[in-house]
Amino acid sequence: MDCLFCKIISGEIPSTKVYEDELVYAFRDINPQAPTHILVIPKAHVASANEITEENSAVVARIFEVIPKIAAAEGLSGGFRVVSNAGADACQSVHHLHFHILGGKQLSDQMA
Ligand code: 5GP
Ligand code: ZN
Predict the structure, then answer these.
(1) Which of 20, 50, 72, 111 has the fewest CB atoms below 10 angstroms from its CB?
(2) pTM for the whole thing?
(3) Predicted confidence (pLDDT) per residue in 8-20, tens digit
(4) Strands 36-42 and 99-103: what pairing?
């Protein structure tokens, strides 16, 4: 499958890892939109938040268990935002489920 984030997980494309376990990989966004901008992804390919099912949702729980650990490690004591773009209207550009962690500054009160 020609998927950029699957290639990042396999190491074919380099990335700056911030966390990894048997289900989840997290790395720094190549084009950060905040001082901290991290992407958290399942190792198993899921196309978007619109493809989460009873069969694959355990990894989503794991991702949300990992997010506070990453936030603490990044010093995001003032808070952070978690975003997942799904589909064209949301401008999803990589079709492998990912959750953006954005923080390290006062974020906009506009989400869209
Ligand atoms: P989306 O627009 O799909 O929600 O987010 C995709 C994100 O992946 C973007 O923020 C973009 O900067 C990031 N991205 C795209 N290609 C690469 C890459 O090769 N390496 C890393 N680390 N991030 C990438
Ligand atoms: Zn993939």
Answers:
(1) 111
(2) 0.98
(3) 999 999 999 999 9
(4) antiparallel
